[in-house]
């Protein structure tokens, strides 16, 4: 595992290229044998990237920010709370929500493979599935966060959660100050995929103006 300390996110390009080649080869074989309809496959991918993407998770987080009662439900039983909004598949894995606070910052990894709550976050990013991230997120979380541009106060503890085939995690990032009067639609625009994995923070109000001000 020590060798993984020398890896950075710059190495992900080669992994992505290799992965793309393998997927393309498999897709070609399945298509030639008539097992897969390319148009249907493209529709599935487009749906995961554009309709699901991180949008479902962002809506859940925004609702939790705006509704303290819902946030309490989410932290108590995220599967039930998310299902109440229609965002999690009934056959999906158990979802656990963890809330970032000034005292504790949460980060999610899957050390054995790449388990990921795709029902709420869409397709997992390449870096999430990479060996360097899976190893280093556990042994050097502060260093990994720094590579993502996240700098936390020295007093903030970092807790790393390991996803499994049965349990997935959703990080509820801290709500940015100055958004008290924002609608849920506008709040959702502050929530990024990385902030729900814990490798990022919610956007600042300066980055996203409310639609009413545009």
List the quaternary state of the chains: single chain
Q: Tell me, what's the shape?
A: globular
The H-and-E topology, N to C, reads as HHHHHEEHHHHEEHH
Find the CATH superfamily. Answer: Nitrile hydratase alpha /Thiocyanate hydrolase gamma
**Gross CATH architecture:** Alpha-Beta Complex
Radius of gyration: 18 Å
How many strands, what sense, and barrel or not for the largest sheet? 2 strands, parallel
| Residue runs with pLDDT of under 50 for 5 or more positions | 1-17
Count up the domains. Answer: 1
| N→C terminal distance | 49 Å
In helices, the fraction of residues equals: 40-55%
Instruction: Decide which structural class fits the backbone.
Output: mainly alpha
Write the layout of secondary structure elements.
Layout lengths: L11 H21 L5 H15 L2 H12 L1 H9 L1 H7 L9 E6 L4 E6 L8 H4 L4 H4 L1 H9 L1 H7 L9 E6 L4 E6 L11 H5 L4 H5 L17
Parallel strand pairs: 1-4, 2-3
Helix pairs in contact: 3-4, 4-5, 8-9
Main traits of this protein?
214 residues; two-stranded parallel ribbon; two-stranded parallel sheet; Nitrile Hydratase, Chain A
């Amino acid at each position: 595992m020590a060798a993984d300390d020398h890896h950075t996110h710059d190495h992900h390009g080669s992994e992505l290229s290799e992965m793309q080649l393998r997927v393309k080869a498999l897709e070609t074989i399945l298509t030639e044998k008539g097992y897969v309809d390319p148009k249907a496959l493209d529709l599935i991918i487009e749906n995961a990237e554009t309709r699901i993407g991180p949008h479902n998770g962002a809506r859940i987080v925004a609702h939790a920010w705006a509704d303290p009662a819902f946030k309490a439900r989410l932290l108590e039983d995220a599967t039930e709370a998310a299902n109440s909004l229609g965002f999690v598949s009934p056959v999906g894995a158990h979802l656990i929500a963890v809330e970032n606070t000034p005292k504790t910052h949460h980060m999610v990894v899957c050390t054995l493979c790449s388990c990921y709550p795709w029902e709420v976050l869409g397709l997992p990013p390449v870096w999430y599935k990479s060996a360097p991230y899976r190893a280093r997120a556990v042994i050097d979380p502060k260093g990994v966060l720094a590579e993502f541009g996240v700098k936390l106060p020295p007093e903030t503890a970092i807790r790393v959660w390991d996803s499994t085939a049965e349990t997935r995690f959703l990080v509820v990032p801290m709500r940015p100050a100055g958004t008290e009067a924002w609608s849920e639609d506008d709040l959702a625009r502050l929530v990024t995929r990385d902030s729900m994995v814990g490798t990022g923070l919610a956007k600042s109000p300066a980055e996203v103006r409310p639609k009413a001000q545009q």
